[in-house]
Amino acid sequence: MRFIQSFVPPKQKSTSTGVIPALRGLTWLQWAQFLSGWIAWTYDALDFFSVALTVNLLSKQFNQQVSAITTAITLTLLFRSLGAVIFGVLSDRFGRKWPLVCNLLLCSSLSLGTSFVTTFPQFLAVRSLFGVAMGGVWGLASSTALENLPVELRGLGSGIVQQGYALGYLIAAIINLTVVPYSSHSWRCLFWTASSVSFTTAIVRACIPESAVFLRAKAIEREKGSNTTQKTKIFLRETKEMLKTHWKLCIYAVLLMAGFNFMSHGSQDLYPTYLESSKGFSSHSATIATIIGNCGAISGGAIAGYTSQYIGRRLTIVICVLLVGSFIPLWIIPTSFAGLAAGAFCVQFGVQGAWGVIPIQLAEMSPPAFRATFPGVAYQLGNMISAASAQIEATGAKHIRETVIVDGKPTSVADYATVQGIFIGVVAAFVIVVTILGPENHSSHFEQHKTAFEEGGGRDDAMLEGEEGEESVGGSGHSIREVEGKKSGV
């Protein structure tokens, strides 16, 4: 009983009676900021999975083995940490809006560049640079989306934002199914689509105002007469204070995200290749199974994010990961399309259900003034540790073989099923243990904290002064009129 009670979230003061009243109370600006963060992450994922879906086509294009093509996935994951540091720091120092706009424009440029490469070294170089750009998007997108929502909606919002990742995969799979096979430009169509949509998202974000938290903070600093140099010095000092105080939390968050990224990349990156190579499916059938799996992911993320608001973040994660483990046999044993597609749906429901809690779990766990840098860097360092997931599975499958009947003849093929089953099982156990041992700060009002460029922002108890306004932005306790008034000098 004591073990179960350790998962129960503490009671928090609420300004709303539930999700429906909170949804009804959202302003158009809150909707716009949330959707801009969600769309940014969705189409960033579209570009990333464009490589995973076309591994065999890229292998033929560049005359390379599958394990060599997966090097591009590894390099993208490795360089995402650098992007998380660069754009996370810029966001916590200067605000959410313009760093995210620049980040998306860079993603668009590099995605377009990918479509025009002609050699394998060029392909690897561009995907490495794309990793830097992609690394900045998640921290900025999730903080933009969640910090402007009322506390009551952050669990649901977390699940929806994170499943932009699965939705991006789903859209890429649909394009790969309906456009790529019939186009003379083949796999390049995917990257053209990703580039154009990332560019459009950047324009949309540029038209939406900055987060209210940063408008308030900038207005206060302007009243104090603080200049850019002074605010930068304060930011550096508060960052140092945060790292000195929370270095253990930083290590824990990286370990947690390493486990989560091993689980997601291990179950997704080579899934189409697994169906084609081990199960003998056509590329068309493998893509349809991928689409079904991502439908499970999207539904799992939204449901788990919503549920976490009531039963707690860690307990929801543990339940979802246990579902993953229980459905691994259905994911790898069947030989029929229906059985494997059902397994994909159930496994991805669990994997992305657990992931749906992560944006808000990391935001609430983070030092409040560093809600872009801390979650983003932890996420991407975890990605860096798990970067070799696809290569580990591809290499393992080269050494673990199985015999199947192809055209009436016994044929030795790579046993991706066994490799992925073992891999995901071990990782799921690791994630459960790390989650149980970690902290939870359920329904934290982090938007009431000072920003990183304000004096004392690096301390956990550095809260804003003032009482709640009537038109609260993200539950910050400061009304839209109050923020705009400060901005205009009223």
From TrEMBL:
Write out the annotated subcellular location.
Answer: Membrane
The UniProt record lists the keyword Cell inner membrane: no
Q: How does it sit in the membrane?
A: Multi-pass membrane protein
**A GO molecular function held by the record:** secondary active monocarboxylate transmembrane transporter activity
Extent of Basic and acidic residues compositional bias: 479-490
Q: Which domain of life is it from?
A: Eukaryota
| Keywords from the UniProt entry | Membrane, Transmembrane, Transmembrane helix
Give TM segment ranges: 66-91, 98-118, 124-146, 166-184, 249-266, 286-308, 315-333, 417-438
Q: Does the UniProt entry include the keyword ATP-binding?
A: no
GO cellular component, alphabetical, reads: plasma membrane
SUPFAM superfamilies under this entry? Answer: MFS general substrate transporter
Q: Where is this region: Disordered?
A: 456-490
- Give a GO biological-process term: plasma membrane lactate transport
Give the Major facilitator superfamily (MFS) profile domain ranges.
33-442
A Pfam family of the record is Sugar_tr
Name of this protein: Major facilitator superfamily (MFS) profile domain-containing protein
Species this protein is from: Paxillus involutus ATCC 200175
Highest lineage ranks of the organism? Eukaryota, Fungi, Dikarya, Basidiomycota, Agaricomycotina
